[in-house]
Amino acid sequence: MHTAADIQCFADDPTAYFGRSRRAMHTLPAAELAGLQLAALRMRFEQLCDRVPVLRTMADEQRIRSIDRLDDAAPLLFPHTVYKSYPVSLLTEGRFDRLTQWLARLTPVDLSGLDTAGCESIDGWLDLLDTRTELRLAHSSGTSGTMSFVPHSAVQYARLYDTVGLEVVPGAVGPVDCLWPGFRTGRSGIARHATAMEEQIAREPGHFHALHPGHLSADVMFLAGRLSAAAAQGSAGRVALPGSLRARQHEFEEARRAVRDGMGPYARRLAERLRGRPVVALATWDVYYRMAEAGLALGLEELFAPGSVFLAGGSKEAGLPDDWEDAVRRFTGLPSPLFIYAMTEVIAVNFLCSQGRYHIEPSAVLYVLDPGTGAPLPREGVRTGRAAFYDLTADLQWGGFVSGDEVTVDWSPCPCGRTTAHLARDISRYGDQQGGDDKITCAASAEALGQALEFLNTALV
Fold this sequence. Notes:
Elements: H1 4-12, H2 14-17, H3 22-25, H4 30-48, H5 53-62, E1 78-79, H6 89-92, H7 96-103, H8 122-132, E2 135-139, E3 149-153, H9 154-168, E4 177-186, H10 191-202, E5 208-216, H11 218-232, H12 249-261, H13 263-274, E6 279-284, H14 285-297, E7 309-313, H15 324-332, E8 338-343, E9 346-351, E10 357-359, E11 364-369, E12 382-391, E13 400-410, E14 422-424, E15 428-429, H16 430-434, H17 446-459
Parallel strand pairs: 1-13, 4-5, 4-6, 6-7, 7-8
Antiparallel strand pairs: 2-3, 8-9, 10-14, 11-12, 12-13, 13-14, 13-15
């Protein structure tokens, strides 16, 4: 029988609960894990229902007063539109006071005393929240023309990378060199990982090797999304340019140069500083390919020590060649990237096992929904449908989220020895099937960023 303290520990810090053992985390009998997840989910509902206004409204509409089965929470899983449900004019007009009021409906954090009078940009607003509150908002790249803001906490990211460290550098007692082929800091879903990775794995600034030393601007990514959406509608020339961007021309020029010209010099720096050493890296497939392509063009091959880990997340980038993995192997000298399944809305990194299956972390309750009705499919056998999750580590938001991903799950134990639910590697997006935008993305593609910077450099003349 689990005590209340056990349940709280499992939800807040699953790594500590399982005695810092990755094996223990993924070999708990399925029925026992489901019972533990139910107890933690019930606890989160009781903690948050009366403190998160959007959740309270949804629970009242559904007449849900308690969580007695895991499936009871299915009607309360948020669609991604919740995180961008504000009028887009709040961003274009800089109404950060009203945007803060909107955010207050999604979190129990008291934002009533937050003074946004000095905020002149999205970056400034996010910085204010970072420095004055427990929240760490993760924004999307805004490819739909608006931008989602998901309220996480600094503690969640720190504990996530404590867990990731156990997987990729088990037994490490000191700093580990980390590669980050992007801007050193930022507040997008993927950029938030950079900060946590530097703090928890690199541990010292000198061991964190970023492509660009600067900050990935949320304002630039918002503009990139606006341009992309406008271009799709044939009206790219009529996109409003927020006045707050006009004073930052030098910053945008530098960012444009880094995106256009930076990967070759970056590959050369890595060869000079880290050849033959063990490293850990995180990026999307397309970024790894561009890095490998630039390095191979300079004659750089087999750079890193055996045991290095290149964590590879999915990408929406089109046009990758079929042999992109081979290029990455030649450049890095490693057999293969370590593929992961992750998303902005859920603080979990789900690793691909030796059998080619993504194992869902025990801190994330998986739901597979009927794509037509939204009803949860039985938690047994092999099922295909829409992936949804409840993030049990979420303490400053309601952690339920419906994704845009079509997945096939197997609830039975995996031949690799793990007992956690596991997904087939072939994951597609319903939006791609339907020709529309069905899921937000956290990764800023070079094409989108380049388009925004090109526009800015023209408009700022």
